[in-house]
Design brief:
Order of helices and strands: EHHEEHEHEHEHHEHEHEHEHEHEHHH
Shape: globular
CATH topology of the largest domain: Rossmann fold
Strand content: 15-25%
Largest sheet: 6 strands, parallel
Number of domains: 2
CATH class of the largest domain: Alpha Beta
Radius of gyration: 21 Å
Oligomer: single chain
Distance between the termini: 47 Å
CATH superfamily of the largest domain: Glycogen Phosphorylase B
Structural class: alpha/beta
Low-confidence stretches: none
CATH architecture of the largest domain: 3-Layer(aba) Sandwich
Mean pLDDT: 94
Number of strands: 12
Length: 348
C-alpha cells in the first residue's frame, strides 16, 4: 500500500445504529472536499457499512462485528492503513482501545470518559446539548477539531443506476410499477424513538386510502417489526393498492434500493427515515420535543421534506417535566400526515 508523505489519513468511527451512521456522511464528504488529498475510511458494523457503499468520498470501509474474539483482528486491519487521525463519533470503550492499540497519533472523541483519558484521546464536548443542534453537526465537531471548516450537514446516501434497476425489479414482483405513486409507510422504530401505536397507524392507513382513492397509488409497508395483528387488519381491508413487502427486504442495501424509488417516505425518527433523507427523497418524519428525539436534533435535513413535531404548548401540558414521558401518540394526528403528503405531492 502506497502512502503519501504528510497526507491526512482519517478514520471515521461510528459502530452503533443505522440512523447514527447516516449522520457521519456529511463529515465524510466535507473532509474529502476540505482536504482533497486525504485518505478517508470508515469503521462501522458490517450491516451499517451498507450505508457507505458507493460513497465517492470514502477510500476504504472497515467493519467490526463487535465480537470479543475479533477485537485484535480489527486492530490489525486498522493498523494496515497507517491512519494519522481517528474520529470516534460516539463514545465506545472497545473502539477507543482499538484506535489506541492501532497506533493512530491523533484521536478525537466526545467528552472526557475515563477510557478516553487513559488512551490520551483529544475530545470535544456536546455541552449537554446546549444549544441544541443536529446530530450530524455534533459529529462534524470532531472533524472541526482537526481543522475542517464547514457547516454543510446535508446527508449523503448513494445508489448506482444498476441498483435502481434492481429496486424496480424488486417492486415489480409486488405489481408496483414505475409510474405508480409510491408512498412508503415505515411504521416501526424498534424503540429508538417515540412512536405511535399500531392502532393509530392503522387509522392513518384507512384515512390515506379514503383521501387518495382517486390516485394511482401504491401504499408500501416496509417495517419488519409490524405485528401479526396489524398485518391482519391490513389484509382485512382487501385493498390491492396496499402492499406489505417487509418480509422480503433481506438486507439494509435492499431497503436502500427501494427507498431510492419512493415518491414519499413517511416514518418516525428512525434509520430508514434518515436513509430517505440522504437519498433526497420527499420525506415526512414525526418527532417529539425531547432533546435527543426532536426535529432539531434528529430531523430530516433535505429541503424537499417535512418534519412534524409535537408543539411546545402540547408537550408542556401533556408530557413529563423531564420530557422522558412522551405524548406523541396524541400530540400529532393522522390529519397532520395527510396534509403533509398533500403538500409534498404539490411540490415539483
Amino acid at each position: 500500500m502506497f502512502f503519501k508523505k504528510k497526507q491526512k489519513r482519517i478514520l471515521v468511527v461510528r459502530t452503533d445504529r443505522v440512523g447514527d451512521v447516516c449522520f457521519i456522511t456529511p463529515t465524510l464528504r466535507e473532509l474529502k472536499k476540505f482536504f482533497p488529498d486525504s485518505y478517508i475510511a470508515t469503521l462501522t458494523q458490517p450491516h451499517t457499512s451498507n450505508l457507505i457503499l458507493n460513497n465517492p468520498y470514502v477510500d476504504a470501509i472497515i467493519t467490526d462485528d463487535l465480537k470479543k474474539e475479533n477485537f485484535w483482528k480489527v486492530v490489525k486491519e486498522i493498523r494496515k492503513h497507517k491512519f494519522t487521525h481517528a474520529l470516534l463519533m460516539f463514545p465506545t470503550e472497545r473502539a477507543a482501545y482499538q484506535l489506541f492499540f492501532a497506533g493512530i497519533p491523533t484521536r478525537v472523541g466526545v467528552g472526557h470518559i475515563l477510557y478516553e483519558v487513559i488512551t490520551f484521546m483529544k475530545s470535544v464536548s456536546r455541552n449537554d446539548y446546549t444549544p441544541l443542534r443536529h446530530e450530524a453537526d455534533y459529529c462534524m465537531d470532531l472533524a472541526r477539531k482537526i481543522g475542517l471548516k464547514s457547516d454543510n450537514i446535508k446527508l449523503d446516501i448513494f445508489v448506482t443506476e444498476q441498483e435502481k434497476t434492481e429496486g424496480i425489479q424488486f417492486l415489480e414482483k409486488y405489481n408496483i410499477q414505475k409510474d405508480d405513486l409510491k408512498i412508503f409507510f415505515h411504521i416501526g422504530s424498534l424503540g429508538s424513538a417515540p412512536n405511535w401505536t399500531e392502532e393509530k397507524y392503522f387509522s392513518l392507513v384507512k384515512k390515506f386510502c379514503s383521501e387518495f382513492s382517486d390516485k394511482n397509488y401504491k401504499l408500501i409497508l416496509s417495517a419488519r417489526e409490524m405485528s401479526p395483528d396489524f398485518r391482519k387488519w391490513i389484509k382485512e381491508l382487501n385493498n390491492n393498492s396496499i402492499v406489505d413487502l417487509a418480509d422480503d427486504v433481506d438486507s439494509l442495501r435492499t431497503m436502500i434500493k427501494i427507498i431510492s424509488l419512493a415518491d414519499i417516505f413517511f416514518a418516525p425518527s428512525t434509520g430508514p427515515l434518515h436513509i430517505a433523507d440522504g437519498l433526497n427523497i420527499k420525506t415526512i418524519g414525526i418527532h417529539c420535543r425531547r432533546k435527543v428525539s426532536s426535529a432539531k436534533h434528529q430531523g430530516i435535513l433535505n429541503d424537499v421534506s417535512i418534519n412534524l413535531e409535537v408543539s411546545r404548548e402540547f408537550c408542556d401540558g401533556n408530557c413529563s417535566a423531564d420530557k422522558n414521558s412522551c405524548s406523541i401518540q396524541t400530540g400529532l394526528n393522522e390529519e397532520d400526515v395527510i396534509q403533509a403528503i398533500k403538500k409534498l405531492l404539490q411540490m415539483k
